[in-house]
Amino acid sequence: MRQTLLIARRDFEAYFNTAWGYVILAIVLLINGLLFNAFAMKATARYSTEVLEDFFYFASGTTMIAAIILSQRLFAEEKAGGTMVLLDTAPVRDVQIVLGKFLAGLGMVAALLALTTYMPGFIFVNGKVSWGHMGAGYLGLLLLGAAVVAIGTWGSTLSRYQFVGAAVSGVVTVLLLLMWMVGRVSDPPIDGVVSYLSLFDKHFQPFMEGKVNTESVVFYLSLCFAFLMLSVRSIRGRRW
Amino acid sequence: MIEVTGLTRTYGETKAIEDLSFSIGAHEIVGFLGLNGAGKTTTLKILAGLLYPTAGLVRIDGQDLFGAPLEARRRIGFLPETAPLYTEMRVRDYLRFLGELRGMGGSALAGAIEEVAERTQCREALDVVIDTLSWGYRKRVGIAQAILHAPKLVILDEPIGGLDPVQIMGMREVIAGLRDTCTVLVSSHILSEVSQTCDRLLILKKGRLVGHGRQEELARMAEHATCLRVQVRGEAARFLALAASLPVVKEARIESDSDGILSARVELTGDHREAFVAALVGAGFGLRRVDDAEAELEQVFSTLTSSGPNPKVK
User: Fold this and answer.
1) Does the distance separating the beta carbons of B102 and A85 come in below 8 Å?
2) Is A189 at the interface with chain B, CB within 8 A?
3) Is B137 in the same domain as B255?
4) Residue B298, burial from CB neighbour count under 10 angstroms (0-12, 13-18, 19+)
5) How far B47 CA sits from the closest chain A CA (Å)?
6) Are B272 and B204 members of one domain?
């Protein structure tokens, strides 16, 4: 575990050793703020919970995009810079390397989400929303972000070029997002299975509404597990 | 220290290395030579634990490299041709991270960082961002990370590549200094450098080991033991005429002629040293000295790696 956290810390700090981390955070926060101002804070009178739901809706999109961009460098940069050899020759298991990288990416997503809390804070101060609703929404965002970081981590293992990893992760994420459409046009029992794989529609909606759905928590964690295992296989395969 | 047995690695149908077997003792500095595509990098990567072999066994300090990879990796330090550096980090932070990753910590790690910085002559760069360092310093930092955890085996792939003459001299000192604590395996294309730095050489050709031993042993293996350096009293012209008339002499060359004392290098067609010396004495030359002429490393390397059947490894 110590080595996992060491790798996570180094990679997390690496985001801030260059302008990269700051730029990504700034851009995503700016987009989040603009979307919140333009769509959530409408001139017409609305319930605070509706405004909060809108915030989580927009934040889910920006979180997914940020997760892909932040995770694309995790392995690709090591491969391109020739530093992967340092991890490969260290007395560290492949799963520890993958987990460390994943935690670094997840840490950045968590930092990003923490920086967005001023927006629900406005709603909380000026309206009436519960801590539970906000907590559930943020838990959903974190789980959704974790799943996409896991997908991005796997994509990053595939090539030394970051854009390749980002493209593959982006395609996989979009496919998972579109599963609800496929589910609608499929026949039973396929429709149920396909709908269950829907990254947003089936599993994020309850969090937006302030509900913590165990099935969705399990789904996101399973997605993390699956793509992290694929990442381990991918980096282990390079030794063969 | 290192025992390699029957090491084979294939990429699809292509055999990168085939049935390599050799052993290296503790505190030896061994040079690893071969033409491009000979399988050097593949072998080094396997020894560093970066690649699995298709067949064969590697034991590092008695530990099976592939049976207990994590334990074996603690005993290995590796510097690839391009030093693997997190260029955005300061040298001290970089070394601290790698030390901690390899299980070190506390004051022991702090002490080890100071010590390796001293040994690799990069102490003044410890608090400098790696991105601003010269190529030579980057190599030194690369070696520093490779020896930080006091490994038993250090593998250096082209450690002097890209260095200027002054940096090469510094690097030579650094590598020689590693002998006290480690076994060192150095891969290089610069033959003269290898001959100066290494105790022994391993020569690869098309994935097979075609020679190993000290430079003189390799020279004999490459049939240069038939090269003699003789010192005789007599006339140069008469010496050359005699050499030309002897069927056992392939080539003779006068290297110096001073006060009737000749120094000559003579290449024989085979191991006919006794016949040649008898002919010299019989012809009335005053024989003062006979030595095996040391073959140039380039010559040995060229002979061992030239096309044709592989010389038999002793």
Assistant:
1) no
2) no
3) no
4) exposed
5) 10
6) no
Q: How far apart are CA A138 and CA A140, in angstroms?
A: 5
What is the four-CA torsion angle of A219, A224, A230, A232, rounded to 10 degrees? -150
pLDDT value, residue A62 = 92
Beta bridge partners of B252: B266
pLDDT of residue B221: 62
Helix (H), strand (E), coil (C) string for B88-130: CCEHHHHHHHHHHHCCCCHHHHHHHHHHHHHHCCCHHHCCCEH
Residue B312 in any domain: the answer is: no
**Please, what is the average pLDDT of chain B?**
83
**pLDDT for B278-297, tens place per residue?**
999 999 999 998 887 655 55
Give which of A67, A62, A235 is closest to A149, Cα–Cα: A67
Whether B194 and B290 map to the same domain: the answer is no
User: By CA distance, what is A6's nearest residue in B?
Assistant: B101
pLDDT tens digits, one per residue of A174-207: 998 888 787 777 777 777 787 788 888 788 888 8
Same domain for B54 and B134, yes or no, is: yes
User: How much of chain B, in percent, has pLDDT values that exceed 70?
Assistant: 88
Q: Which of B42, B86, B131, B138 to mutate to test the interface with A (most CBs of A within 10 A)?
A: B86
Cα dihedral sign for B84, B85, B91, B95? Answer: negative
Give the residue with greater pLDDT, B141 vs A38: B141
Using CB atoms, pick whichever of A3, A82, A239 lies closest to residue B52: A239
Interhelix angle A131-157/A48-71, nearest 10 degrees: 20
Amino acid identity at B178: L
Burial of B122 (0-12, 13-18, 19+ CB in 10 A): buried
CA distance, residue B179 to nearest chain A CA (Å): 21
- Do residue B166 and residue B21 come from a single domain? yes
Q: Is residue B302 situated within a structural domain?
A: no
With a pLDDT cut of 90, the percent of chain B lying above it is 16
Residue B165 · residue B178 · CB < 8 Å: no
- Assigned token pair, A146: 């974790």
How far CA B82 is from CA of A159, B31, B156, in Å, comes to 19, 18, 10
Q: Model's pTM, two decimal places?
A: 0.80
Query: Looking at this predicted complex, what is its ipTM?
Result: 0.84
* Domain limits for position B276: 225-294
How close B82 comes to chain A (CA, Å)?
8
Higher pLDDT: B164 or A166? It is: A166
Over residues B219-227, the mean pLDDT reads 62
pLDDT digits 0-9 by tens, A31-41: 988 888 887 67
Q: In this complex, is the C-beta atom of A239 within 8 Å of any C-beta atom belonging to chain B?
A: yes
Residue A170 distance to chain B (closest CA, Å): 27
**Inter-chain residue contact A86 with B74, CB threshold 8 Å:** no
Kindly indicate the confidence band of residue B223, based on its pLDDT and cuts at 50, 70 and 90. low
Per-residue confidence band for B313, with pLDDT thresholds at 50, 70 and 90 = very low
Q: Which of residues 24-83 of A touch B (CB under 8 A)?
A: 81-83
Cα B49 from Cα A99, distance rounded (Å): 21
